[in-house]
Amino acid sequence: MIKKAIVTGLLLVGASTFVFGRSAFTYIKTAGSEIRQSVKSQVPIEFEVRRAEQLVKDLVPEIRNSMHVIAEQQVEVESLHRTVDARRQSITMQKDAILALRSNLDSADTKYVIAGKSYTQQQVEKDLATRFRRFKIAEETLDREEDILNARQTALNANEEHLATLISTKKDLEAQLAQLDARMRSIKAAESISESTLVDDSRLSKAKNLIAELNKQLDIKERLLETDVNSAGLIPVEADLAPEVEISSQIDEYFEADLADRAL
Questions:
Q1: Distances (CA, A) of 98 to 114, 127, 131, 171, 211
Q2: What keywords are assigned to this protein (predicted)?
Q3: pLDDT at res. 37
Q4: Which pLDDT band, with edges at 50, 70 and 90, does 13 fall under?
């Protein structure tokens, strides 16, 4: 099936190239765009609104994942803060011990009593060298830990800002969707009222026409009844009461002027 579709597509491309030449790709692209627009215009707006709502709902897993990542980063940053603070306190104590031993060497004594125990100058110098080396290593370690802490804190701040933006955007989109849904319902209600009005107007017009036709038919029947009632059972005396007009009188009246000339 796939092979057949590929072959069909190649044939169509070949035919288009033969007909349109180098402009075939432009024609195909334009036709595809028009088809997509035509199909999209046929999609009901209610479906598009539901699709937009689903896209907003799809943000929830991303928000939850961001919250989980942020929670992990917060725990890690807090742990690093404790480690760095402890490292700083340790370095401070090491520094104080080094300076204390260093002050003993200034006395130029051959032996030193520290915490009730006697030490030679060589022992003090060796211990001081060891402490100083460890101090510098601790400082370097602190620098690295502070760099790590700063990097983790920066990443945490960025993720918290992204999460805040994501939540705010989701709320804005939900508000816009609510307004869109309200507008859609309002328009549907208006359309429903308009369609109902058209139906009612059509029915009213039919009812008015029917009533007018019925009134006309009743008028005709009343007129016929009046004629029948007026003439029924009466003696036709009107025929005898009508004066008879003789033909000679009609002619004399019509040609009155001519007859007068002849008489002269």
A1: 13, 9, 7, 59, 118
A2: Coiled coil
A3: 54
A4: very low
Residue 148 neighbours by CB distance under 10 Å: 15
* pLDDT tens digits along 67-105: 999 999 999 999 999 999 999 999 999 999 888 888 877
Angle 24-41/2-20 helices, nearest 10 degrees? 120
Q: How far apart are CA 104 and CA 121, in angstroms?
A: 9
CA atoms of 99 and 135, how far apart (whole Å)? 12
How is residue 43 annotated by DSSP? Answer: S
Nearest to 123 by CA among 107, 101, 149, 103: 101
Element containing residue 77 per DSSP (H, E): helix 59-105
Rounded CA-CA distance 148/235 in Å is 132
Rounded CA separation 180/99 (Å)? 73
Contact between 13 and 28 under an 8 Å Cβ cutoff? The reply is: yes
Alpha-carbon span 140 to 161, nearest angstrom: 31
Q: Which CATH number fits domain 46-215: 3.40.190.10, 3.10.50.40, 1.10.287.1700, 1.10.1040.20?
A: 1.10.287.1700
Predicted TM-score (pTM) of the model is: 0.52
What are the Cα distances from residue 126, in Å, to 19, 102, 110, 132, 137? 94, 11, 14, 10, 17
Instruction: State how far the Cα of 73 lies from the Cα of 161, in Å rounded to an integer.
Output: 13
Q: What are the extents of the domains in the chain?
A: 1-42, 46-215
pLDDT of residue 73: 94
DSSP codes of every residue in 209-256? HHHHHHHHHHHHHHHHHHHHHHHTT---THHHHSPP--HHHHHHHHTH
